[in-house]
């Protein structure tokens, strides 16, 4: 066996990229048939926030900010910048490093830029385990979209708002269902109340991705928890997805 040449390893990486991209795009197509996702799309329209046709997209998230999941968590753009992405090797990639986000936040605090959360959903294609993982991530982001639509929340500046929408997204997406937790090797002996703990743990990680809120992420999540864990809107009750 000869040693790998640089060209061979570049080629292997390109092949892997293509596999990840095709797989991610397939999951987005199949999500249009997922009843929960269809329901949330329908609710968004009824709330007056018609989702754009390219709401959900696959991106290369190498070096992205945010902790653990399949989705870029903080999506802020200044009003003069349309898309939260740059071209990297001719492909779209998640643009925001922590430095960039902090730069934008500093500008906002100086009154130089007006930031908004973009109504776009990025799946980080190299972090998807399987179809249900991808669809849970999409449900998670659609819950944020519903929250942004139904209230005048400002999750960039208001850390309680951010904690609340993260709690709801973790809770209602099924990401903390016991089967998912078991697959992740996280289901310990304390079965009772595990869902709440999981929602809390993951919500704290998400809130930490916002530099405005990172310092006291656990306090914000604790303060918002009871109210927001109970709030199952737009579902009548918790959608037990399995
Ligand atoms: Zn989130």
From TrEMBL:
Asked if the record carries the keyword Oxidoreductase, the reply is no
TM ranges are: none
Q: Does the keyword Hydrolase apply?
A: yes
GO MF annotation terms: metal ion binding; metalloendopeptidase activity
What's in the keyword line of the UniProt record? Hydrolase, Metal-binding, Metalloprotease, Protease
Q: Quick one: a GO cellular component term?
A: mitochondrion
One Pfam family, short name? Peptidase_M76
One GO term under biological process is: mitochondrial proton-transporting ATP synthase complex assembly
According to its UniProt record, the EC number is 3.4.24.-
Q: Which family does it belong to?
A: Belongs to the peptidase M76 family.
Q: What is this protein called?
A: Mitochondrial inner membrane protease ATP23
Species this protein is from: Thalassiosira oceanica
Q: What is the lineage of its organism?
A: Eukaryota, Sar, Stramenopiles, Ochrophyta, Bacillariophyta
């Amino acid at each position: 066996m000869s040693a790998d040449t640089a060209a061979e390893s570049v080629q292997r990486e390109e092949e892997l990229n293509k596999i990840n991209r095709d797989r991610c795009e397939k999951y987005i197509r199949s999500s249009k048939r997922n009843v929960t996702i269809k329901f949330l799309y329908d609710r968004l329209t009824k709330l007056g926030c018609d989702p754009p046709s390219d709401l959900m997209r696959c991106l290369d998230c190498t070096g992205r900010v945010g902790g653990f999941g399949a989705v870029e968590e903080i999506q802020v753009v200044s009003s003069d910048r349309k898309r939260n992405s740059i071209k990297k090797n001719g492909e779209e990639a998640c643009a925001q490093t922590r430095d960039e986000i902090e730069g934008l936040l500093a500008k906002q605090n100086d009154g130089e830029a007006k930031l908004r959360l973009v109504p776009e959903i990025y799946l980080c294609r190299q972090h998807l385990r399987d179809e249900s993982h991808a669809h849970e991530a999409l449900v998670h982001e659609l819950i944020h979209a519903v929250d942004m639509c139904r209230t005048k929340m400002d999750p960039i500046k208001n850390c309680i708002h951010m904690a609340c929408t993260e709690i709801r997204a973790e809770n209602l997406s099924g990401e903390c269902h016991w089967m998912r937790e078991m697959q992740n090797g996280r289901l310990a002996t304390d079965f009772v109340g595990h869902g709440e703990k999981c929602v809390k743990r993951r919500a704290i990680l998400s809130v930490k991705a916002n530099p405005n809120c990172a310092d006291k992420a656990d306090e914000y999540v604790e303060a918002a928890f009871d109210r927001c864990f109970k709030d199952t809107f737009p579902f009548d009750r918790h959608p037990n997805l399995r």
